[in-house]
Every structure is written in structure tokens, then in C-alpha cells.
Amino acid sequence: QVQLMESGGGSVQAGGSLRLSCTASGYTYNPCTVGWFRQVSGKEREIVANIALVDGSTYVRASVKGRFTISQDNAKNMLYLQMNDLQPDDTAVYYCAAGRKGGGICSWKDWGQGTQVTVSS
User: What SS3 string covers the chain?
Assistant: First the structure.
């Protein structure tokens, strides 16, 4: 369907910054939302931030408010996550995702392979 690929992960000390990028390829479509998730080993995947494309509104989870910023460049089919003041609790595999409407509901359907972010204290 559509292929998503993350990049920009790595290892950084607490207080450092990273910028994650997500590139879309293959069949193009208009998703209802795009965003970033993260998952720690043994834990459930959790949403980090997303953009509702119907109006451009942005959501970020409380634990990263003021530190993470989600943005997109539609002309380049790119999605970004700027992560500042990283903390050890931010260590996780980060995934970009896109949602599509079905039955009147916007649900997450397409996922990247993930990129590792490791923050050391």
C-alpha cells in the first residue's frame, strides 16, 4: 500500500536533541492523520504526537509537551519529530504512522519499521 521509513534515531546524552524523519513512498493517498509512536521493550506502543490533517491541529502527549515538536512537509512527503531536552525515559523505538478513514473512523493503518532512540544519563 504505502511504505513509511523512519530515520534519525541514535544515542544521545540526557539534555541532547534528535530530529526524526519519516519518508512516505509507494502508493500515495490522503491520510486522515499522521503521527509518531514509541515503544519500550515489554511495554505497549504509545502515541507521542500526531497531526489531524482535516484542520492541521496537533496533539502531543503530556510527558513531551514543550520538548517535542511534530511537523510535516507535504511537498516532500516528509514527517518530522524534533526532540529536545531528551531524557532517559524517552528511550524507545520510534515509529511513524498514518491513519485512514473507514466506517467514519480515522484509524492507524500504516507503520514504519521503527528507529531506535537511546538516551543516557
Answer: CEEEEEECCEEEECCCCEEEEEEEEECCCCCCEEEEEEECCCCCCEEEEEEECCCCEEEECHHHCCCEEEEEEHHHCEEEEEECCCCHHHCEEEEEEEEEEECCEEEEEEECCCEEEEEEC
Say which residues have a Cβ less than 8 Å from residue 40's Cβ, sequence separation at least 6.
91, 92, 93
CA distance 115 to 92: 8
Q: Which residues contact 100 (CB under 8 A, 6 or more apart)?
A: 29, 31, 32, 106, 107, 109, 110
Q: Which residues touch 60 (CB under 8 Å, ≥6 apart)?
A: 48, 49, 68, 69, 70
pLDDT at 63: 98
- Cell numbers given for 82: 524534533
Identify the residue with better confidence: 88 or 29: 88
Looking up cell 504505502 gives 2
User: In the prediction, which pLDDT does 28 show?
Assistant: 67
